[in-house]
């Protein structure tokens, strides 16, 4: 099963694609869609929509997991992230892809076993769980891989019990 994780944002949207086979996980791809800060909001959303669509079409994920928007004190940021989530969900719907959503707390809990883990702890566990030579960069892409791992753990509880190691 191929799972795509997405960490939505207007300036930078992280994506991570993993393959789950039995109790093993393998990284297929990760990166960020970055938008031009001088572009209009609608142009930035269009960039996110088309760029993620191309990535979805290239990897043919079986499902997509997106980080849920958590309460943000900066209303402007929350609105723009919500708009990015909207175009992400639209890209998934147009391809008939099932979407699951997880809070940052759920992602941290699934990946590290501790809901208040630091970014560095999450990155270290993503590195270990996917048997990578180094922690994935940039941060948004590492978060997206963690979201995909969280989804794998939720769909296959045996994977979480086995530690999600590569087979």
In short:
The chain is 49% helix and 22% strand. The protein is α/β, with parallel strands linked by helices and 167 residues long. The protein has one domain: Ribonuclease H-like superfamily/Ribonuclease H (Nucleotidyltransferase, domain 5, 2-Layer Sandwich).
Keywords:
single chain; 167 residues; alpha/beta; Nucleotidyltransferase, domain 5; five-stranded mixed β-sheet; 6 helices; 49% helix; globular
| Fraction in beta strands | 15-25%
CATH class label: Alpha Beta
Helical proportion? 40-55%
Number of helices: 6
Order of helical and strand elements: EEEHEHEHHHH
Kindly give the count of domains.
Answer: 1
Assembly state: single chain
Distance between the termini: 14 Å
Notes on the structure:
The chain is α/β, with parallel strands linked by helices and 167 residues long. It has six helices and five strands. It has a five-stranded mixed β-sheet. The protein is globular and about 40 Å long. The two termini are 14 Å apart. The mean pLDDT is 92.
Question: What is the fold's blueprint, element by element?
Answer:
Layout: E1 2-7, E2 12-21, E3 24-34, H1 41-59, E4 63-67, H2 75-94, E5 99-102, H3 104-112, H4 119-129, H5 139-155, H6 157-162
Helix pairs in contact: 1-2, 3-5, 4-5
């Amino acid at each position: 099963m191929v799972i795509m994780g997405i960490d939505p944002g207007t300036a930078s949207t992280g994506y991570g694609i993993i393959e789950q086979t039995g109790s093993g996980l393998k990284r297929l791809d990760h990166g960020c869609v970055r938008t031009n800060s001088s572009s209009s909001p609608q142009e930035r959303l269009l960039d996110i929509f088309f760029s993620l669509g191309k990535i979805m079409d290239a990897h043919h994920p079986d499902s997509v997991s997106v980080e849920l928007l958590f309460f943000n004190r900066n209303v402007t940021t929350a609105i723009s992230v919500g708009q990015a989530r909207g175009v992400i969900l639209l890209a998934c719907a147009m391809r008939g892809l099932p979407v699951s959503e997880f809070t940052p707390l759920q992602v941290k809990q699934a990946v590290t076993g501790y809901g208040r883990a630091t970014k560095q702890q999450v990155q270290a566990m993503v590195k270990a769980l996917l048997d990578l030579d180094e922690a994935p960069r940039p941060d948004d892409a590492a978060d997206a891989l963690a979201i995909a791992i969280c989804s794998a753990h939720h769909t296959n509880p045996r994977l979480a019990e086995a530690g999600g190691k590569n087979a």
